[in-house]
Amino acid sequence: MRGGIWEIILIVILVLILFGSAKIPAMMKNIATGIKTFKKEVKEEPKATPKKAPVKKKTVAKKKSK
């Protein structure tokens, strides 16, 4: 995959045209906040979950075939 400088410039221009220069910093801030929150949640230890009562399995009697 070859990406030259002209392709990068074209992509940047298209992004600026589509989103406008005012929305890009806000989008980047939202993405950064999301990444920070995700990393924070991953690093935290899982909270202790209350143990549930064991579920009893029902046994079904099979009919004998003749």
Write up this protein.
- Helix content is 55%, strand content 0%.
- It has a domain at 21-45.
- It is mostly helical.
- The model has no long low-confidence stretch (mean pLDDT 80).
- It is built from 2 helices and no strands.
- The longest helix has 21 residues, at 23-43.
Largest sheet: none
Runs with pLDDT <50, length 5+? none
The assigned structural class equals mainly alpha
Shape: elongated
What's the topology here?
Blueprint: H1 5-19, H2 23-43
Task: Spell out the key features of this protein.
single chain; 66 residues; mainly alpha; elongated
In short:
With 66 residues, this protein is an all-alpha fold. The chain has a domain at 21-45. Helix content is 55%, strand content 0%.
